[in-house]
Write a structure and sequence with these properties.
Keywords: Dioxygenase, Lyase, Oxidoreductase. InterPro entries: Glyas_Bleomycin-R_OHBP_Dase, Glyas_Fos-R_dOase_dom, GlyoxalaseI/FosfomycinResist, VOC_core. This is Catechol 2,3-dioxygenase-like lactoylglutathione lyase family enzyme. GO terms for molecular function: dioxygenase activity; lyase activity. It holds the Pfam family Glyoxalase. The protein is of the alpha+beta class. The protein folds into 2 domains: 60 residues, Roll (2,3-Dihydroxybiphenyl 1,2-Dioxygenase, domain 1); 81 residues, 2,3-Dihydroxybiphenyl 1,2-Dioxygenase, domain 1, CATH 3.10.180. Helices cover 11% and strands 28% of the residues. It has 2 helices and 9 strands; from the N terminus they run βαββββαββββ. Strands 5-9-8-6-7 form a 5-stranded mixed β-sheet, with helices on one face. A hairpin with a 5-residue loop joins β8 and β9. It is globular. The protein starts with 14 loop residues before the first strand and ends in a 25-residue tail after the last strand. The mean pLDDT is 90.
Length: 188
Amino acid sequence: MGSANSEFDFQGIHHLALVCSDMARTVEFYSGVLGMPLVKTIELPGGRGQHFFFDCGGGDCLAFFWFPHAPDAVPGVSAPAGRPGEVDLANAVGAMNHVSFTVPEPKFLEYYEKLQAKGIDCTPVIDHDDSPRGIAPSFHEGVFVRSFYFQDPDGALLEFACWTRTFGPGDVSHVPRTAAERTVPVGL
């Protein structure tokens, strides 16, 4: 995508670790439906649970913990309450919002149809642009990423995305917001 890191030689995401309620169902979804090879399994000592790693490409892994006493997810707090276009996507600070997998642009629509054929409920394709709404009604040269969303068996929000253009200096133009600008609902 462009800019070099002058501090550290990062080579990608080693792994992102999520928590699941049913490891067998998680293996079936990520290996069976999405085709990610299960590359490492760990039984945590003292009956504390399991930690499994799936190869998600490029030398990176998506990992899951299964803890026997993990609390249930709280939609809208631990993860978004649903998918874009259906609900407000806000969730708690420090929680994971979604995992986006890079897919090749030439195969993007093929993968969309393939997931639907496997019975996965996907959002419509979203063409992200710099318009005030952030979403284009149809693909055009200003679209910078195409994506669609779906959920895993535990409700984790997943996305397939492909970049459609190269970024330049004009793509970094917003002033970062601060904690003082947050408005937290009463009672949370």
